[in-house]
Amino acid sequence: MSEQPTGPTGDDASRVRVFDTTLRDGEQSPGISLNKQEKVEIASQLARLGVDVIEAGFPITSPGDFEAVQAIAREVEGPVICGLARANAKDIEAAWNAVKDSERPRIHTFIATSDIHIERKLQTTREDVKGQVRAAVAHARRYTDDVEFSPEDGSRSNVEFMGEVIQIALDEGATTINVPDTVGYTMPDEYAAMFEQLYRLVPGLRDVVLSVHCHDDLGLAVANSFAGLVAGCRQVECAINGIGERAGNASLEEIVMLLRTRESSHGLWTGVETTEIARSSRLVSRLTGYQVQHNKAIVGRNAFAHEAGIHQDGVLKERTTYEIMDATTIGLEANTLVLGKHSGRHALKNALEELGFEVDGAALNTAFLRFKEIADKKKKVTALDLEAIVSDEMRQSASAFSLESFDVEASSVRAPLARVTIGLPDGRLVDGSFTGDGPVDAFFSAINAATGHEARLKEYHVSAVTGGRDALGETTVMLELDGVLASGQGVSTDILEASGRAYLRALANALALSSGARQQAEEAPRAAAAMTQTS
Ligand code: MN
Fold first, then answer.
1. What's the helix, strand, coil split of the chain in %, to 5?
2. 92 C-alpha to center of ligand 1: Å?
3. How far is the CA of 213 from the centre of ligand 1 (A)?
4. d(Cα 449, Cα 348) in Å, to the nearest integer?
5. Rounded to an integer, what distance in angstroms lies between the CA atom of residue 240 and that of residue 337?
6. Ligand 1 mean position, distance from CA 305 (Å)
7. I need a surface site. Which of 41, 273, 348, 526 has the fewest CB within 10 A?
8. Could you tell me which residues come within 8 angstroms of residue 209 by beta carbon, excluding any fewer than 6 positions away?
């Protein structure tokens, strides 16, 4: 049928390297506030997914980003670990110091080559840009022989000039050249023609890896990426769930499944373990607070659902009448594991290991207590539940506040009243109460009163981890505090408890983000001002 076995079936020349930028370009999305531990967890999952390169962050931008990239470089094995750097010495040193402990470190340096970016943003000249590229790539090569260079806004650059810049990067030893469609403006035929012209202008490009990096402003990120691959590129930069600046990046799951499903037509393949796709998508959605749209290709909840009677009838008779992919291929039905209330510590440990979580000692005790609590209320605890609990616990240890107790009174005859007791980072307990418009509003306002922060709720989502009346509830809160957007998630069989946890985590994240921004502004006001949108 239309499905093909996954690689390595093709020859090496047809292998497409998957460069994941969920933790760099994706993490630049508003309201995403991943801490170090969460970034390491995502990077570990990306390693299980089998991506070739993890762009772990932009180390110069903040001490927190530096530490996260360093932790990933030290702990995550398999993929190349890459740090982003503008084309200057300080950025490149920071990127190198962050990634150098990886077995396979890469420095990715970039500078804009379009006239609009050179004249308006950088306020310099084409000649100066050439000099910066020469110095930056040479500097990076002194540290490592794996250096990627990107001419930012490449798709809107004069191609002859960009060819000259790329030639300089190659002369100085760059091993991957990535030509981004930074603003999501190009079209497939145009992007492919640009690469064909670059191959003519810079014959040396045939000896290195050429790469695509596309944004989805016109909904063409995956189509443009694919056009670039057909034109000869062998690295695709992409992000889980398509997160990234503005409308996002090409989504990893879409480009990977396009390559796999239609391999017999184009011959291209990747080393991605596709059965890890569904889980990667859930993890990134959960930790970033960015929900996946229901009709999203590959990972949307309806991507494999059939509604129309004619379709259902067809699929029942023969799946391939209406399905071009099998849900098991992306790992949607892989986790059939179930635990009950009598399952012991050992069974839990095994189950967690099967899910890829190494839990020992105190962490196992905490996970076990939490599991018992849930198993008492819920007949069956599934793999999806365990995944949610572990993510929730991970965020708990990272949170600066704890929800000690709450009492919410709601009825149709008087305004809801909420009382809370919150544990502060220094161990003190504080109380707050509030009469609000609704029970959730009263609850969140009582938390504000107790902690003394005037956070404003921007978004609030509730969903169920699995089906059934006893399902675990999962909430996502996005709030704003002094102009900073931050999100948090919570999981519990009690939806109010899940909401309170989510709100407290979002609050802690907002405080961490604003103190990070203050620190950065004090340390390097000019560097902070120069931080603009990147490729
Ligand atoms: Mn980008």
1. 50, 20, 30
2. 19
3. 7
4. 39
5. 25
6. 32
7. 526
8. 17, 175, 176, 177, 233, 234, 235
| DSSP per position, 213-243 | EEB-TTS-HHHHHHHHHHTT--EEEEBGGG-
How close is the Cα of 417 to the center of ligand 1, in Å? 46
Q: Which residue has the tokens 């390297």?
A: 17
Give 56 Cα–ligand 1 centroid separation in angstroms: 14
Q: What is the whole-number distance in angstroms between the Cα of residue 211 and the centre of ligand 1?
A: 13
Distance from C-alpha of 392 to C-alpha of 488, rounded to nearest angstrom: 10
Q: How far is the CA of 316 from the centre of ligand 1 (A)?
A: 42
Distance 535 CA to ligand 1 centre (A): 4
Higher local confidence (pLDDT), 398 or 183: 183
> Any idea which of 68-82, 164-178, 453-467 has the lowest mean pLDDT?
453-467
Residue 533 has what pLDDT? 45
What are the two backbone dihedrals, phi and then psi, of residue 135, each rounded to the nearest 5 degrees?
-65, -40
The tens digit of pLDDT for each residue in 315-361 reads: 888 888 888 888 889 988 655 667 888 888 888 888 888 777 777 78
468 C-alpha to ligand 1 centroid (Å): 40
Ligand 1 centre to CA of 126 (Å) is 22
pLDDT at 8: 45
* Rounded Cα distance, 69 and 90, in Å: 16
Structure tokens at 190: 């145009």
CA 2 from chain center: how many Å? 30
How many angstroms is it from 443 CA to the middle of ligand 1?
Answer: 38
**Residue 470 token pair:** 């006893």
Residue 441 and residue 316: Cα distance in Å, rounded?
Answer: 46
DSSP H or E stretch at residue 435: strand 429-435
* Ligand 1 center to 183 CA (angstroms): 8
| Global confidence as pTM | 0.88
Among residues 199, 141, 188, the alpha carbon closest in space to that of 166 is found at 199
> Can you tell me which residue has the tokens 């993929």?
79
